[in-house]
Amino acid sequence: MTRELNLDDTPGAQPSRSQSTIEHSLPPGHVYRELLLRYSLSDVDAAIRWLEIGDYIGYSGWGIALPRQLMQLTEKGVRLAKTGCLDDDERRLVYQENPYAVFVARQFREDDNPLFTYLRDTVLAPMGFQLLDGRVDGVEAFRGEVLRKIRLARFFVCLLTHRKELKDGGFASSVWLYQETGAAVALGKRPLILVEEGMDDHFAGELQKNYEYIPFSRAAYQDALQETGRRLQNDLLANNIPLRGKGAP
Questions:
Q1: β-strand 192-196 against 171-172: which pairing, if any?
Q2: In angstroms, how far is the first alpha carbon of the chain from the final one?
Q3: Domains and CATH numbers, the chain
């Protein structure tokens, strides 16, 4: 923002002007109008409030006769704008969820351990993701701790695997997986469902219709789980969240 002042308004006097500049600043209305083209008002309000709390933006007056308020980047705000990254400590302040955390809904069965281990150790951990799951004790713990983990994680992945063989030859999965998926939806997450080949349509079809899903088979699950990692990374890139680990620039 730049202003010019006429310092001598005496009749007949030669006008004299002084120019000053306030860097990295705009009137709040300008900022809101630009952002409202892409985001909702509530999202813009929340983001600006967090930037204020983190001391990334401040306010200053501009003008003499009718001073206007300007929204201005602080030194921290300028550094953030230039680097595009937050320090880990600052990220905890700004984000209400961990952008690198993935909640994996799964059955705690020996047959499924290779799937989870491959997804965790070979795919997601090297990409910088932290995996959470529903391993807790008791129903009350499920209502509290599991919901806390789902709320904390940016991503929700469900390993929808066989649990019980049905009379027609198809399979159903664990009721806990459906409950955890419902909890994730209620908390505003977008589930990614990994559907094992052979699941009965009644127990997998509705999930496939409503949520993003990837089919896989026990004989060849590696490609499907690698695709899971790519989709999570693409979400980070689409939301201007820096990648970590494998695939990071």
A1: unpaired
A2: 34
A3: 2-94 (1.10.10), 98-238 (3.40.50.450)
